[in-house]
Write a structure and sequence with these properties.
Blueprint: H1 7-22, H2 33-41, H3 54-71, E1 83-88, H4 94-100, E2 105-111, H5 115-125, E3 137-140, E4 157-163, H6 172-179, E5 183-194, H7 198-211, H8 228-236, E6 247-255, E7 259-262, E8 271-277
Parallel strand pairs: 1-2, 1-4, 2-3, 4-5
Antiparallel strand pairs: 5-8, 6-7, 6-8
Length: 282
């Protein structure tokens, strides 16, 4: 039986994670084969509302509410209709499909490195004729580093989403850096993730995975969780992001039998949404 890591080893690993947040060097790929394999194994149950992705189905309305609250911040985003979405780490398409059905949506491009999960997303989308309209919804079996970097604002996106993604990335700093060029001036990068606290370890690892079984074991690695102040620090170091009120953070919590609810201050100890606007061109 392998020995448990010492406290010194744990702190060393966390220091490495913090360094990754601050590391702005480029990286060839953010894809972790172990993570891809894990989610490939969950592909067949992705659209079962009572299956392994149940919490994602229940969270989806809050995702749209959060994006709407970002767009409501002044100065308002330059574009409110025909929005272009890039959904990174789209999984089986829970958010991508719902975004593609909105009357304010122009197009949705959704990407994921998991071959099995992307195939599930494509098959499910074929059930809805609206989603088959040219340009409405496109799924790509790619990581963000595999996409061509936009050269003009017309090629960029109004919303780039990373929902329940960044806590599965080994080097979040370079990964975020790879996402930034896809947001057009005035557009938003939005994500949801989990704070790295003892409370989140208890609720997401011990209770959710080991005791209640809300999510499969091994879904989360607590050491990969990211605190909101670390994300603030990352974007503060980026020129042209989050000025003039272009930053929004909202905590949320899952209440058994009720569902997800926003909660003031929840970003300091558990799940939260984080949105940052690319500064409009002056």
């Amino acid at each position: 039986m392998a020995a448990r890591p010492s406290m010194l080893q744990r702190f060393a690993h966390l220091s490495y994670r913090l360094q990754c947040i601050r590391n702005y060097a480029t990286s060839t790929s953010s894809v972790n084969p172990t993570e891809v394999s894990h989610f490939n194994n969950l592909a067949s149950t992705w659209w079962d509302p009572y299956g392994s992705s149940r919490l994602l189905h229940l969270m989806n309305p809050l995702r749209h509410d959060f994006i709407a609250s970002c767009h409501a911040l002044k100065p308002h985003s330059s574009q409110q209709n025909d929005l272009r979405y890039l959904d990174i780490g789209c999984g089986g398409g829970i958010f991508a499909e719902s975004a593609a059905r909105l009357r304010t949506t122009g197009s949705v491009t959704a990407i994921d490195p998991s071959t099995d999960v992307i195939e599930v997303a494509k098959q499910h989308a074929r059930r809805d004729p609206l989603l088959q309209e040219p340009g409405r919804l496109e799924y790509l079996n790619k990581g963000v580093e595999d996409l061509d970097i936009p050269q003009t604002p017309e090629e960029q996106f109004d919303v780039v989403s990373l929902f329940e993604v960044i806590e599965h990335i080994d080097k979040p700093g370079p990964f975020l850096k790879s996402c930034l060029p896809f947001v057009r001036p005035g557009g938003w990068l939005v994500l949801s993730t989990i704070a790295r606290t003892w409370t989140s370890w208890l609720t997401t690892k011990v209770v959710a995975e080991d005791v209640v079984g809300l999510v499969p074991r091994g879904t989360h690695d607590w050491s990969k969780y990211i605190n909101q102040d670390e994300l603030r620090g990352f974007f503060k170091a980026q020129k042209g992001w989050g000025r003039n009120g272009g930053l929004k953070i909202t905590g949320c919590i899952y209440v058994p039998g009720i569902g997800w609810r926003t909660v003031t201050g929840g970003e300091h100890w558990g799940n939260y949404f984080f949105g940052v606007r690319r500064d409009p061109e002056s």
